[in-house]
Amino acid sequence: MTDTLPPHGPIACRACGTDPASRVHTTSDRKFRVVNDPGAWGSSRPEILVLGISKGFTQADAYEKGDFDAVPFKGCRSRLRQSLAAIGVMDSNADIDAAMSRTEQRYAWGSLVRCSLSGWNAKKRAFGAGTPEVLSAFDHPEAGHFVDGCMRRFLGELPNTTRIVVLLGNADAYVESFADRLRRLHPQTYRRLNPVAHSTGASGSGLTLWVHAAHPSPGNGHFTAFIDGAADTKQGAKREWARAAVARWSGGSRPAE
């Protein structure tokens, strides 16, 4: 276990080899690009760590303009609170802006890829930071290095205070790709709990729940179905699986498989 996560603020990291001058690395086939702008928000010893996939262009633009505290989930914080409340890790009336501040103690915020990752959209002839463009990087031999590097550095060891990691994004492809990487990262203790939840670590303070919830991006067309859908629908079932895992974890027992 590590004592802390990175403290609230920009993170000094060049592990993926981005050019110090340009801060940008583009894959050799020019399909993916990463901008060196990693950051951390909230507590360095959280109970709950919430991770997007990577910063979107709205968030990356706020970072470039120096408005650091406005970066995480800018433009979709209300929807984020809904997603977290739906699975039982945040009150529906919580002050989510305050929870992302330097003084926050319970929550930490970031992304699986701490830098800004984008993928080439051939139809638009431009790089895009939407889930379809970014998720395809996971299976790319060069861009996948960014994902693996971030997971090793920031998720290989967690503080013993961190009981739950929420992964924003519950598309089947993302859940399965993440499961494969988490299993490789924690080969001795990884356990699949249900279709949207995993655990790692030994019993006691080292045990961590990893659970997927709907991504709050305005472009997520499945968001409303996750929040309000019936339990026998695909997104409704994913919400109920996530909620059950969190409830059992919070109650002090491992979620059932």
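Next protein, fold it too.
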Amino acid sequence: MRTLRARTAGIAQRVALALLTAWLAALASRADQLPLWEAGPGLAVVDFPDYRGADERSTYVLPFPYIVYRGDVFRIDREGVRGRFLKSDEVELDLSVNASIPVKSAENHARQGMPDLDPTIEIGPTLDFTLHRGADRKSSLKLQLPLRAVMAVNLSPPRAHGVGFVFEPQLEYDLHDLAPLSGWRFVAAAGPVFGDRSYHAYYYGVDPAFATSQRPAYMARAGFGGSQLTLSTSRRFPHFWVGAFARFDWLSGAVFEDSPLVRQSRAFAAGIAFSWIFARSDTLVEADE
């Protein structure tokens, strides 16, 4: 039976979620002359399964910093925290970052007695191809090819170790200023997920030392890890910002689908965030966001 737990995020959880909420809070408005940087306080409510395939969830209510920086190379924007090393009308090469939440095994029935899952940080290059852009530049279709190394981290005690690689190619359709919803941005992104053996073992492997009669030992394999669909919307007002997202996961056909830690083949995550923009740069830059 699926359970729902609501709790306040601690320091480790905030570290793990900081990049995710920064991505959510940085979904900007339209291409225009915009401040070089903007900042303000925000509040987010996010709800996740403990991990993809888990049948238990956690809800976090947490403050976060709304930060947008529109530099020529380093950027914090709707694509997340990234370094932009190559940009043309058709091709971009970025450095992308992602993150995941921690899981306390004592609070998850499938993982009882197993080591906790530390929050992870993912970092690596992404190559983006613009397949179509509307004549009015209010819509675009991109193929995104991110390859990221994954590192599990913790602050108490401080430690970090690599847990593999993940590759998440996806098609992203971006639409904004759609009448009569002028000012709103809508983004849909979908694609498969691939992971190496270490990455899948981190979430779905069961060492013989932790096997039980209900949880047999399991060795994860590299390969297809299911598919995802992410829908998001946002709007930037003169002094505040609002955004929301929903993510759907399907694990049918995943190489780890038969792991005893996979309790359901579908997953859903969602979040909503608000921010007050109280500081901004006097310098304006051309931002195609």
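About the second fold: The chain is about 10% helix and 55% strand.
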